[in-house]
Amino acid sequence: MKAEPLNVEENEVLQEVINIGMGQAGASLAKLFDVFVNLSVPRVSWVNDADFIDQVEKLVEGHGSSWAGVRQAFYNQLEGEAFAIYGAAGCQQLAGLIGYVDGDNGAEEELLLDVTNILVGACLVGVAKQIGKKLDFVAPTLVGMGKPISDLLYKRDREWDQCLLIEVNFCLEEGDFSCHLVTLMSEASIEQLRSGLIDFMESY
Amino acid sequence: MTAALGDNSLGFIIDRVDVGILVVTENLEVVLWNRFMEANSKVAAETIVGTCLLESFPDLPGKWLEKKVRSVCLLNNFAFTSWQQRPYLFNFKHHRPITGGVTHMFQNCTFIPFEGSESERLVCITLFDVTDSAISQREVQQAQAELEELSNRDPLTGIYNRRFMETELNKEFKRVRRHGGTLSVLFLDLDFFKNVNDTYGHQAGDQVLIEVTQRIDGMTRATDCLARYGGEEFAIILPETDISGGLTFANRVRELIEKTPVYYEGHAITLTASLGLSEYDEGIESHDALLDQSDKALYVAKEQGRNRVVCYTPDM
């Protein structure tokens, strides 16, 4: 069964709900790291399974060949997998900022996992809360570090057809770096998302 | 969660579940300490509840833990740690003294914010013993490393095989093309090797290959790569070596093979070898082309009467 894609109006509401969620994420990161953090307005789009890799490669095109990827599963009424992609420069900046200075690989990996957890959590919990859906998380895991993007994406879940692509840019005091956040949701979740969005619209 | 069970029952489950459960305040004061934590730490709940966690466990990464707990309170979101990055939070003994081969219990932790308690922020930490997974993963990694090593080796002689050599040569080729320097490739073929097999049998042939390999191996530097290319043909990658250095080395190898027979069941098997040598230059397009040049030089060495070293020239 293929889920009906969201219509224009539903997508607008989704964009709004994600904006609010990511705004909260930015505020949280700023509080946590004690620095000015600005998150760009996220760009939200849907892609088909077949176009997934192409789309993500387009996003990161021309920004180097060294990337880190972290994945995190979520489940309950909304279920799926989130995938965060970071450039090499961004990883270093984050590490410097948060004071992981001991050159310990484990520490840098842990930092990426933490930041992903915070971003994914803030974004999806934000969405789920606003549309009144339950959501839980599994611990994030590292897919790879310092690798070309194609090496990171091959493990993606092919079970679901629709991918929700959320592109966010961080702006830290020290300079910009990008994080690309991709989520894949099951067909059932997209129906839940739709019903939640419709309820959300009607409550206004 | 339904509360068909009474509070006592829930307390019982929390206490006895085989997962570490502790609840702390934002300042790391312990509020709950279940039996798993008690049993593994040897610190009783009565002792620790109401005190700061770090008093009983000075070895904990205090600053990190404070930050973690604070972030969970602040963001009101779950947080996780995995044994792959942080092997353990609490330095507990593991329960595999016989089969473990590890020094501590590997742990995955989840930090859960309490919802709704505005006055006092609480965080529940659950701690899972994942020593079994950690050990299995380590075993798999070891097996993989061993398999990879095996897949690079020639089973008879133990030196590298053709596949590995070509990968290495490709790397060396790229290195020298980017950073400059010298690189030579030597091909070696034992002369009339078929006669050894026909006269003394295949086991004698195998013995010859093993001994010749050992002799050449004894002459190579750590950075050289000696590989069995096929049958009785060997290839040696000589990084940081120009044609004259390569020629000196090749002649030493040739002389050693000629000088010392291989003894097999009372027979002294005398041998000679033909060698082809070529050196990298900027006109060579790929590592394959470099190999091809050495191969051509080897062919000429055979043509000219064997037991000799021939350097590649463009007219070959």
Written as H for each helix and E for each strand, in order along the chain, the element string of chain A is: HEEHEEHHEEHEEH
Terminal CA distance of chain B? 83 Å
How much helical structure, as a percent, in the residues of chain B?
40-55%
The number of distinct helices of chain B, counting runs of at least 4 residues, comes to 11
List the uncertain runs of chain B. none
Total count of strands of chain B: 13
What is Rg of chain A? 16 Å
Q: Order of strands across the widest beta sheet of chain B?
A: 6-8-9-7-12-13
Ends apart, CA distance between termini of chain A: 32 Å
Overall number of strands of chain A: 8
Work out the largest interface and the residue count of each chain: A-B, 19 and 15 residues
Number of helices of chain A: 6
Structural class of chain A: alpha+beta
User: What string, H for helix and E for strand, traces the elements of chain B in order?
Assistant: HEEHHHHEEEHEHEHHEEHEEEHE
In which range does the helix fraction of chain A lie? 40-55%
The pLDDT mean of chain A sits at 79
The fraction of residues in strands of chain B falls at 15-25%
Radius of gyration of chain B, in angstroms, nearest whole number: 33 Å
Q: The biggest beta sheet of chain A, please?
A: 8 strands, antiparallel
The secondary structure category of chain B is alpha+beta
